[in-house]
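Hi R.,

Here's the chain you asked about this morning:
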Amino acid sequence: MISNTAGIPLLAGGYITLDTVKAQGLAANRRTKIYCTLGPACWEVAQLEQLIEAGMNVARFNFSHGDHAGHKACLDRLRQAAANMKQNVAVLLDTKGPEIRTGFFAEGAKSVTLVKGEQLILTTDYSFKGNSKKMACSYQKLASSVKPGQSILCADGSLVLTVVSCDEAAGEVVTRINNNAKIGERKNMNLPGVVVDLPTLTEKDIDDIVNWGIKNDVDLIAASFVRKASDVQIIRKILGDNGGSGIKIISKIENQEGLENYLDILQVTDGIMVARGDLGMEIPPEKVFLAQKYMIREANIAGKPVVTATQMLESMITNPRPTRAECSDVANACYDGTDAVMLSGETANGAYFRQAVEIMARTCSEAESSVNFNELYQSVRNSVRGRFQLSTSESMASSAVKTAVDVGAKCIVVYSESGASARHVAKFRPGMPIAVLTPNVQVARQCFGTYKGCYAYCVDSLEDTDALNKEVMRECRVAGIAKVGDPIVILCGTTFGKGATNQIKVEYVEDDPKRTHVRAHLDNNNAEFNGCTIS
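And here is the predicted structure, written out as tokens:
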């Protein structure tokens, strides 16, 4: 098998040997980030501490469920747990987005049984109480959007309907039932290949972002069903107009329209989520892995963080061990180049939420152990330069990584006001950890949560770089990241402020450098940079 889709005909797995298989994995060295969805199974302080200890980098709040008060109570517990564990855990608000759902049933029924071959009428009168012959649909333009022969998928694809005829005047669509199914109320519906005439942001989404997300200082917005670049720009304007300009936008690509406009979306978004659940309803399931590889590669070249989501360890909702296929799915996402992987029901509702995070962390670490990061750096750089000229910041980041490779640095330290320099360094995929020093707490959480290989430190100021350099050397030695005489590459600025990064230094760890006035707290001294905060 030729290595992925590379232009050079090399067999895949060239860096995997028997010793690689037998070696003891080190989850502490994991670079790939883990998003965990919070829910009843894991939302108490002690349980959240377990998730953080197991490897959670980002806590996802799913606003398809719950209310503001319930989410706020959970957020308070999360921040208490993060403080207890001394970790910069990022907070992600995942919007509900525009949804199409089936309606309610007559006579108090909670479900109806549908028989293959029979007809089912879908009506856009959402007040209609349905049965096995006729059912309501929340999308008012259904009859004018679909055509005879097209498919309609319900309840995550467990029910497949084929359109027989459409009556726009009556707002009804006659369909043929393709499989026996038992369906409950208010189940999701997908219209593969149809350009749905619904706003990307609903009134509920705007309220959730403005009156919960911004007010509670969240770090990331996962925008559901992004279909074009203007969707992202609308969200960014809402954030800017309401004091949330520092919040990053992660665009969820989960339909064909979003996939077709992906490159335009990528230019204006801060990150990408490969949302394979709904995407697998919108395009043939056998095409989803191709879409995943395409989106991840383009995001890597653009230097935008990308998270791969949906059903990664689905069986662990009820089982203490994943299937072999699920572990392979996680590992292949890492090989594809994903910055992060996500758990949904596995943590929100699963009986084995901690074990799910632990095995995901170990799987990511094992996948990364067989990557040649020196060649990966060169591959990323060549791919980027094949598309466009590097910006000044990207060139500095690329040079810092190259220098770190050449001198055998144990760590790359980045001083960053906005996180942009950290993102650019992470883009070039160094084999050593990236320590980000920033005076902005939100930037620290964003870097730790989304940028591959990055660990975040909060500092009072970046003005006294000499003092910070000495303190970093000392802390790297104390933490066991480097020993006396080891080189460390530092990317910083000769002036202070955003966009001032213009200097690369190579410093060597001294035996016992004099303690500076800069204080550092590294309560968990290990190579994970486990929540280190310099203040």
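One quick note: Residues 411 and 432 are 5 Å apart (CA to CA).

Cheers,
M.
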